[in-house]
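Exercise 7b. Backbone tokens:
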């Protein structure tokens, strides 16, 4: 709420208080009681307050997504049958009755889970925040919920609070802690928890008349205990597509969570505006949510709204024993650069196994990404997209340092003939140009006709070594108009 509005309200309150005191007809409410009744309307937040709240998230650029739960126990195979879909959907796709799935949840016993180790892996990878499944569609709670016993402490043999340990370890490493929470719930009888033979009857096509009770007394109650006990910075909703969940619920839930924690950041899947896997809100209608959520894809464009591309390293979010289709580290680094050049964040997923171990192939890639970021991170964090050009050809991306004249040109391939030509940046006359990872300035020339030509001698590459992308640091301004 803008400051001048608040001052007006304060004057009004003072007047009201005066009138109430003079009349003395009834016990006057004190100013605080009146003020408490005036709620901040978070659905009409000013741009300035929104920008201040989003600032850390925009600067962070890179986070870890974690899909973890009882689905890691079957790990893609149930009664000898293997699902060809994502692992966390096994209950639905192989039509596992609730009682049988509850047995997997009971068996869930991640004895090797080490929260400190996970937080260190995130930190060394250059990830500034984490979003972990508090509850996925299967309805199982990875924390000690007082609202339900279908959780890691009361139902599983493991018996310890996973979110409590991880939120503590992340705070110690300076990693912002976020939660993925599914609105759809295949376990709760007032949501989609019916032993229907298949998903379509569960709720993808029908309205559950009891859903409002689940929404009010279960979904909101569990979110309240998550915010009060684990202090997340982000709530990442999913499963909003079900017909039982309405736009009105979305608006109300957003307001409710912001009142619980005004600084919390909430994705656009809290509401109904998302356009499928492309993840951005429809321009028709006023849908709420702080950022768009393209899934398994990177936007072609560079929109002027906040967005985050979430992606798996292989083909599944939740652990599957036989999914070895790992993306190369080069692809993952190039995805990060491409997303940041377009003004977005990259949320890269790991799917830990039932023992509580992050797959070795994920750890290897995260370590390699961390080594690249260790040299080139200044081009990733606290940056913004250029106004006109985020790329040149297919192999160059442009990124601007916030509140600075520094522009980074990142070559996704090793420049040929030790020369790189940049069209869209004009260096400040006499300024020095560097290749990150090499201390000495590079030789370059600039003309309006030919643009910026930068020479990178062989010994420079030798010093920097073979790497996933080469970042040139230029003090200058963007050239537009062509
Ligand atoms: O159904 C979920 C899926 O299991 C996974 O959580 C992804 C990643 O956010 N979201 C939904 C599919 O769009």
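Sequence design result:
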């Amino acid at each position: 709420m803008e400051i001048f509005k608040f001052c007006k309200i304060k004057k009004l309150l003072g007047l009201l208080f005066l009138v109430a005191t003079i009349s003395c007809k009834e016990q006057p409410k004190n100013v605080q009681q009146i003020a408490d009744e005036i709620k901040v309307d978070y659905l009409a937040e000013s741009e300035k307050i929104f920008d201040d709240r989003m600032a850390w998230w925009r600067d962070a650029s890179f986070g870890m997504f974690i899909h973890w739960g009882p689905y890691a126990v079957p790990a893609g195979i149930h009664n000898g049958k293997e699902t060809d879909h994502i692992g966390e959907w096994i209950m639905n796709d192989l039509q596992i009755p609730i009682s049988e799935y509850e047995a997997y949840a009971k068996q869930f016993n991640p004895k090797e889970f080490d929260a400190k180790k996970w937080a260190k892996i995130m930190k060394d990878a250059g990830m500034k925040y984490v979003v972990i499944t508090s509850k996925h569609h299967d309805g199982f709670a990875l924390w000690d919920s007082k609202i339900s016993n279908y959780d890691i402490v009361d139902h599983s043999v493991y018996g310890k609070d996973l979110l409590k340990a991880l939120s503590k370890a992340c705070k110690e490493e300076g990693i912002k802690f976020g939660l993925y929470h599914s609105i759809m719930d295949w376990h709760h009888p007032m949501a989609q928890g019916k032993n229907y033979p298949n998903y379509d009857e569960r709720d993808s096509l029908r309205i559950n008349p009891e859903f409002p009770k689940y929404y009010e007394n279960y979904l909101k109650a569990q979110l309240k205990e998550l915010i009060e006990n684990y202090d997340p910075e982000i709530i990442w909703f999913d499963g909003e597509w079900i017909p039982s969940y309405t736009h009105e619920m979305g608006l109300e839930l957003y307001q409710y969570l912001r009142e619980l924690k005004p600084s919390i950041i909430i994705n656009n899947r809290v509401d109904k505006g998302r356009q499928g896997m492309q993840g951005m809100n429809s321009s028709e209608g006023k849908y709420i949510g702080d950022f768009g959520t393209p899934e398994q894809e990177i936007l072609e464009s560079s929109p002027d709204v906040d967005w985050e591309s979430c992606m798996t390293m292989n083909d599944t979010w939740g652990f599957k024993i036989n999914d070895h289709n790992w993306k190369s580290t080069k692809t993952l680094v190039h995805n990060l650069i491409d997303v940041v050049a377009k003004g977005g964040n990259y949320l890269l997923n790991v799917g830990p196994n039932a023992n509580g171990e992050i797959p070795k192939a994920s750890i290897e890639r995260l370590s390699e990404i961390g080594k690249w970021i260790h040299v080139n991170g200044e081009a990733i964090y606290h940056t913004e997209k250029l106004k006109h050009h985020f790329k040149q050809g297919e192999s160059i991306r442009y990124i601007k340092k916030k509140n600075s004249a520094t522009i980074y040109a990142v070559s996704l391939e090793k420049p040929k003939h030790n020369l790189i030509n940049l069209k869209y940046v004009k260096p400040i006359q006499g300024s020095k140009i560097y290749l990150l990872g090499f201390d000495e300035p590079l030789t370059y020339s600039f003309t309006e006709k030919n643009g910026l030509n930068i020479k990178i001698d062989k010994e420079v590459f030798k010093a920097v070594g073979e790497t996933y992308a080469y970042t040139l640091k230029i003090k200058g301004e963007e050239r537009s108009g062509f």
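Instructor comment: The pocket of FHN is lined by residues 86, 88-89, 238, 295, 310, 317 (CB under 6 Å). The chain has three domains: 3-39, 48-383, 386-478.
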